[in-house]
């Protein structure tokens, strides 16, 4: 860009704030994904994302500090941060990276649900237990986060009144039973 355009009011009031806004969306989104991968133990990808995130941030901050008298760039910086958080959460939801443990506790006999999950290829463990109101069955399974909705739908179909809980899993040992593994982006992200 030429110097005359960069000094123009169009650049200072529209183009520069827009660039700062977009930069903040990028760096905050990358930061959200970096934190997600950090929690999942992806130690080789996290530093690279951190480097890119901070480089974008430094460039955006530099532009804001150079024109501190331009309120529009400050607003664009803050708005980009807020929007980047939103975009990062949406992307994280869509990626569904990682594993979850799903526990199902039911007073109803869980044999039918257990057999259906097993036929679908899920590794499931079923235990007889004693709850506060009597005998219960407990089903444990570890699934990929991208399979969460499908598994919950099966649970509700077989026993709509079942109690279930879901937690993130950082690591699992090899040797468990998982549905067929794909070798796509999700496999790269989970390390499985």
Protein architecture, described:
The protein is of the alpha+beta class. It has 2 domains: 3-95; 99-190, Alpha-Beta Plaits (2-Layer Sandwich), CATH 3.30.70. Helix content is 57%, strand content 18%. The chain is built from 7 helices and 4 strands; from the N terminus they run ααααβαββαβα. It has helices at residues 3-7, 9-39, 45-66, 71-95, 111-119, 148-158, 185-190, and strands spanning 99-106, 124-131, 134-144, 163-169. A 4-stranded antiparallel β-sheet has the order 2-3-1-4, with helices on one face. Helix 2 runs antiparallel to helix 3, helix 2 packs parallel to helix 4 (71-95) and helix 5 packs antiparallel against helix 6. The longest helix is centred in the N-terminal third of the chain and has 31 residues, at 9-39. Residues 182-192 have low confidence and may be disordered.
In short:
The protein is α+β, with helices and mostly antiparallel strands and 192 residues long. It has seven helices and four strands.
